[in-house]
Amino acid sequence: MAESDDMEQLLTSFKKFAVHGDTKATGKELNGKNWAKLCKDCKIVDGKTITSTDVDIVFSKVKQKTSRVITYEEFRRALEELAPKRFKGQSKDEALRSIFKLVEGREPSNVGVTKVAKTGAVDRLTDASRYTGSHKERFDESGKGKGREGREELVENTGYVGAYRNAGTYDKTKPEK
Q1: How many structural domains are present in the chain?
Q2: pLDDT at position 31
Q3: Intra-chain end-to-end CA distance of the chain, in Å
Q4: φ and ψ at 70, to 5 degrees?
Q5: Which of 13, 16, 60, 141 has the fewest C-beta atoms lying within 10 Å of its C-beta?
Q6: What is the CATH number of the domain that holds 11?
Q7: Same structural domain for residues 120 and 93?
Q8: Which GO CC terms are listed, alphabetically (predicted)?
Q9: Domain, as residue range, for 29
């Protein structure tokens, strides 16, 4: 029972790495970039016994000639290729179990991904209460944007020149005869 549970975790890890960074991925095939990421994130690549070059060579060896991706079965064969090299002192079965343990239950890490900056400068620039002049007109009293009325100068088609102070007073100022 434990063996099938371990294989289930291995398949789950395979699927997570297969869809990482690709919105169109189905999770059934793993591309070379994600294979290399899996090997780095799961600490299969140690820089001494296994390097990124070894990982690329094994990927090329197990995939179909014309294919650019590997299936789950090819993925297992690739791990079988790397296991004896990564765990030199162990038997083939022990090395395979050890390399499966490295991969099981793991998922892609997001080390080095840019985080949202939350500094004083950003807060100051996005604080609507500190805006002045014409920019102040784009927000209501609560600081919520007014939308179109705040961005565009809406034209009144009254027939008067814009900003004419005595609009609507023509009839009142007409001299009587």
Answers
A1: 2
A2: 92
A3: 110
A4: -120, 150
A5: 141
A6: 1.10.238.10
A7: no
A8: microtubule
A9: 1-103
* 94 lies in the same domain as 130: no
pLDDT one-digit tens code per residue, 42-82? 989 988 899 999 999 999 999 999 999 999 999 999 999 99
Q: What is the structure's pLDDT at 32?
A: 92
Identify the CA nearest to 95 among candidates 82, 81, 111, 84: 84
Domain assignment present for residue 165? The answer is: no
**31 phi and psi, to 5 degrees?**
-85, 170
141 in a structural domain: yes
DSSP string, 23-70: TT--SS-EEHHHHHHHHHHTT---SSSS-HHHHHHHHHHHS-SS-SEE
CB-CB neighbours of 74 under 10 Å: 19
Helices of type H across the chain = 2-19, 32-41, 52-62, 72-86, 92-103, 120-125, 148-151, 170-173
